[in-house]
Inverse folding.
């Protein structure tokens, strides 16, 4: 197995035969990663726990087919994302309506240009936000903002900006057009950026 | 459609623009607008920085949450049950 250490290979072989301790030792180091990936997509504690349980069962079932071409953590993470996407498909989505989220942040004058641009603060996200990234407050703000997004917007933001999927792959997977992917992505980014305004500009959003 | 789009139009189309989706004349109009409008240019920088900031901020915690540990324990218990004669 190219992508795995000898200890991990041994754990995989023992876990595949049904050794539950070996399975625990194999998965435990990656459990936070697996849980986080699922939670980003589902955004709900109970659904996340169920999907994680399903994913762990799938990982165990498919262990004999794992050839070690990638790292176990990467392979397991993919299984977890698929479990989250499956769970998302099957649950009743009451949060999916297209809402009138802004596509731009004003204020604008009647010609669509910024009003008094000299008095508008300049966005400095890249410089200041990285400095603030360690702050728990920032994590909580982003988590809250992600929770506020409609499901069908959050999934696009997560797959594109957090998981680095291609736009076309997202469109194919969600059975929507690439244009719809970009529009939902843009709405999500604008909303998240509006929430981050507090941190980036030091004022209230 | 006029060559130079307004700030509102530019901000609305920035994700499309970043992916090269609009026709070339529209992309050129947005590009010129961004050269002269510091607010829209800063807004684009913010959009580009967002994925990196979000990835760092929303990185998995070092210790898995209790719910994750519980899920693993349940799966291990199911495996033990399967193995039992």
């Amino acid at each position: 197995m190219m992508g795995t250490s000898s200890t991990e290979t041994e754990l995989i072989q023992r876990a595949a035969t049904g050794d539950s301790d070996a399975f625990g030792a194999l998965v435990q180091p990656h459990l936070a990663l697996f849980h986080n990936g699922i939670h980003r997509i589902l955004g709900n504690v109970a659904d996340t726990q169920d999907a994680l349980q399903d994913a762990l069962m799938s990982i165990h079932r498919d262990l004999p087919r794992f050839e070690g071409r990638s790292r176990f953590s990467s392979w397991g993470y993919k299984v977890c994302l698929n479990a989250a996407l499956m769970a998302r498909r099957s649950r009743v989505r009451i949060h999916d309506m297209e809402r009138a989220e802004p596509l731009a942040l004003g204020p604008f004058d009647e010609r669509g240009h910024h009003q008094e641009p000299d008095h508008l603060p300049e966005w400095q996200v890249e410089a200041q936000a990285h400095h603030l990234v360690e702050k728990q407050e920032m994590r909580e703000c982003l988590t809250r903002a992600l929770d506020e997004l409609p499901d069908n917007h959050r999934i696009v933001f997560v797959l594109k900006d957090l998981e680095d999927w291609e736009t076309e792959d997202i469109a194919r997977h969600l059975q929507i057009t690439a244009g719809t992917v970009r529009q939902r992505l843009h709405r999500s980014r604008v909303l998240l950026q509006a929430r981050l305004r507090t941190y980036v500009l030091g004022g209230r959003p | 459609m006029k060559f130079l789009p307004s700030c509102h139009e530019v901000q609305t189309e920035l994700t499309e623009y970043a992916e090269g989706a609009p026709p070339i004349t529209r992309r050129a109009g947005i590009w010129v607008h961004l050269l002269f409008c510091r607010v829209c240019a800063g807004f684009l920088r913010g959009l580009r920085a967002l994925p990196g900031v979000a990835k760092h901020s929303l990185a998995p915690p070092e210790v898995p949450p209790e719910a994750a540990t519980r899920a693993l324990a349940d799966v291990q218990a199911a495996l033990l049950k399967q193995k039992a004669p």
